[in-house]
Amino acid sequence: MTSLKNSVSKNVKTKVAGQTQDDVVYCHIFDAILEQRLPPATKLSEEALADIFSVSRTIIRRALLRLSLEQVVVIRPNRGAVVAAPTVEEAKQIFKAREIMELAITELAVSNATKAQIDECRKLVTKENAAFDHGDYGSGLRLSGEFHIKLAEMAENAPLLAFQRSLVSQTSLLIAQYETGSHSNCSLDEHSILLDAIESGDVERATELMQEHLDHIRSKLNLDNSSTSNDLHVVFSDILKNKG
């Protein structure tokens, strides 16, 4: 059983210009979910998080509310917040929504992507590759999620971007809960080839590649299994270390 303190982030974010304390806390928890350091059903104690981040419980509540609106955290009346643990039926619905969203995003990205955005995505794929090569599955998964969020930015459609952030993090929960077999990355070449199609302006090829990519991810999920939960205090250990 791990604890919340050690589960926070290996790369502690610091506040940057324009970021509020709410933003910093939100980003840490969001990344911890993407990296599967906060697995489904983990209890998110306001008291523990307030201590870890050295902020008020009011700030923690606002960050958790924001995550609940993205459907990756569930706030239970009188029982506190937990990381969402989708049921099999919910998992199927999430993945279907992801499929519809990604195909629309890909089509728009072909029309709107800039050279600079594509170059940025290629650098992200390189980092993703390096993370998996070094056995850092959590970081690799987070970078893979960031790749898909960057595609949504290319689409130049704010509502799609907001939905994509939620669906990417929800998909990370599905992978944590339902993935079968060993952790292995199968998407690196798929990401690069997809970028090639987007850069060439080939809508049909790009959407076809995205569908294949999503099918590949879906094929690794066993929607008959469930997973265990964790507690909070290992996830954010680096933040606590930096407090001293």
Helices and strands in order, then pairings?
Elements: E1 4-6, H1 21-34, E2 43-44, H2 46-53, H3 57-69, E3 73-76, E4 80-83, H4 88-112, H5 115-133, H6 137-154, H7 158-178, H8 188-200, H9 203-219, H10 237-243
Antiparallel strand pairs: 2-4, 3-4
Helix pairs in contact: 1-3, 2-3, 4-6, 4-7, 4-8, 4-9, 5-6, 5-8, 6-7, 8-9
InterPro entries: GntR_C, TF_FadR/GntR_C, Tscrpt_reg_HTH_GntR, WH-like_DNA-bd_sf, WH_DNA-bd_sf
Domain HTH gntR-type: 19-86
GO molecular function, one term: DNA-binding transcription factor activity
Task: Describe the model.
- The chain has 244 residues and is mainly alpha-helical.
- The protein has 2 domains: 4-85 and 227-243, Winged helix-like DNA-binding domain superfamily/Winged helix DNA-binding domain (Arc Repressor Mutant, subunit A); 88-219, GntR ligand-binding domain-like (Four Helix Bundle (Hemerythrin (Met), subunit A), Up-down Bundle).
- The protein is built from 10 helices and 4 strands.
- The protein has helices at residues 21-34, 46-53, 57-69, 88-112, 115-133, 137-154, 158-178, 188-200, 203-219, 237-243, and strands spanning 4-6, 43-44, 73-76, 80-83.
- A 3-stranded antiparallel β-sheet has the order 2-4-3.
- Strand 3 (73-76) and strand 4 form a beta hairpin.
- Helix 4 runs parallel beside helix 8 (188-200), helix 5 packs antiparallel against helix 6 (137-154) and helix 5 (115-133) packs antiparallel against helix 8.
- The protein starts with a strand and ends with a helix.
In short:
By secondary structure, the protein is mainly alpha-helical. It has helices spanning 21-34, 46-53, 57-69, 88-112, 115-133, 137-154, 158-178, 188-200, 203-219, 237-243, and strands at 4-6, 43-44, 73-76, 80-83.
